[in-house]
Amino acid sequence: MTDSLRPMAAVLAAALGIVAIVASRRRPNVREGFTVVSALSTFALVASMVPGVLDGTVYVTDLGTFVPGVEFVLRADPLGTVFALLASFLWIVTSFYSVGYMRGLDEHAQTRYFAAFAGSVSAAVGIAFASNLIVLYVFYELLTVATYPLVTHDQTEEARRAGRKYLLYTFGGGVAVLAGTALIFWSTGTVNFASGGIAALANADPVVARTAFALLTAGFGVKAALMPVHSWLPDAMVAPTPVSGLLHAVAVVKSGVFGISRVVLDVYGPQTVSDLGVGLPLAAVAAFTILTASIMALRQDNLKRRLAYSTVSQLSYIVLGLGLLSPAALVGGLLHIPAHAFMKLTLFFCAGAIHVETHTDDISDMAGIGRRMPVTMAAFAVASLGMAGLPLVSGFVSKWYLLIGSIDAGYVVFAFVLLLSGLLNIAYFWPIVYQAFFQTPDDADAKPVIESPFGGRSRVGSPSAAKADGGKPRSDGGKSKGAEDADDETAYAVDRYPSDHVRDDAEEAHGQGATEEAHGAHDDDHHGGPPSDGWERRALGKESTWFMLGPITTAAAGAIALGIAPYAMVFLALIERVVAGATGVAF
């Protein structure tokens, strides 16, 4: 171990961004410049530790005793570095995308949005570098607090309802984590992470050990969206699309599966998990979630909700690998953390670009939209292939390891689950890609894969037709923004400034002004779906601002790079070191 301030500096770089963002609230360009600088600084600090971590160095920041018997220590080990590197890099990409998205929709409360985003990433990096369950719990709860304003950003009743549900579920999960942590401390006298697990747990009372394991995995499983505690995630899609990317790819749900990873690998260890017989039940819950969520995704007509149920399914690939315990399965599960992140962020970025440019949210309205948004839908197609586990995209590599690991563990049934899930992924992604490029609004079949009453519209073409998700169409935009927001007494103090929600000539001087030239003129009477004369054909690069297209292509390129050269992307090398340390099997 090497004493270093870099783990703490990485957490503080994002946290200090909050102060800078709020301080520059009246100057949007400066505010967003601070966002990018904070993201770059955080990533640079994390990346600077990667060579040393690969060589076996563990960077430690010791801040002394936190509570009796527990020290507040941040530690950059291989597993934490995987999560921190992923979160900090994708924050850079999402920051640029957020500028295009928030300005493209002239969203209100942009200062609060960017500040909360910085706070969320700071908490995620803290989770990554936590050296014990108590420190992890503190940052885990801080992440919930930081993301709540993002979930409720629209400030509509629907958003507030989703926010209350989010708090109820995630704070409830936090209570379970704290209870499990207390049992671990009572049984062993420590909560510090150790590669291969806490040795004393092997001799602890099996009933207590199993109870603690159930509490910890259930608590972290809330943010990991394991069934039956998953329903907060689809409801949270009322948030702006970059927030959905944060929830699904960058921080929140990944913190859940990361917590389960720490429990399996560094609290119990694979051998103790096997001896207690708790790995197989965990794998069974994951397999159930994989298949059930995939079937539920089939009946969603709203694009973001379909992506949400896809996330519920895909996250359980990670948990499945952790439950199977074989070295190959562990590598596949952990590798699916970055693999899923790049693919799902691409998909949500595409959904957001479609919303900003065409105000379209329902899949049944997207026939022929590839003419209007060729780059966006091409990136969507690439990420969809990866989600289904096809070669040359990151999802193939992680799922290949999972397949081999299932067979190595002696559970062929889970290999069948993985193959069936891949077919279901094709079933709910291919129709989107097909109708975007190979159909027109006139010849499109609006029915989803599963028809009513399980999905689809009851009356095709009717403005009041029932949606497949069983409710009214959801949009990212929320309530209309206007001058009345400035008089809203419920608005946060930092957001009672024109730069957050009202455009004027002064703001145009700072670059906050009209987006018509960047995005192309919109028909003010067009509120979703193809215009009456069909989708306009746009040339490559002309479909949206490059603040949005740049991040979309970057995320898609990352998914391809991880699929073609996983070692060059560093993540696989770090993960092999994690698994070797936990199992003793060298790669």
TrEMBL record:
Q: Which domain of life is it from?
A: Archaea
Where is the protein situated, by its record's location annotation?
Cell membrane
Q: Name one Pfam family in it.
A: Proton_antipo_M
Q: What is any one of the record's Gene Ontology cellular component terms?
A: plasma membrane
Residue stretches spanning the membrane = 6-24, 36-59, 79-101, 113-140, 166-186, 207-226, 246-265, 277-297, 317-337, 375-397, 409-430, 546-575
| Predominant cellular place of this UniProt entry's protein | membrane
Q: Where would I find the NADH:quinone oxidoreductase/Mrp antiporter transmembrane domain in this sequence?
A: 130-420
> What GO MF annotations does this protein's record show?
oxidoreductase activity
Membrane topology, as annotated: Multi-pass membrane protein
InterPro entries registered for this protein in UniProt? ComplexI-like_HydComp, ND/Mrp_TM
What keywords would UniProt list here? Cell membrane, Membrane, Oxidoreductase, Transmembrane, Transmembrane helix
- The protein's name is Cation:proton antiporter
Give the species this sequence originates from.
Halopelagius fulvigenes
Q: What is the lineage of its organism?
A: Archaea, Methanobacteriati, Methanobacteriota, Stenosarchaea group, Halobacteria
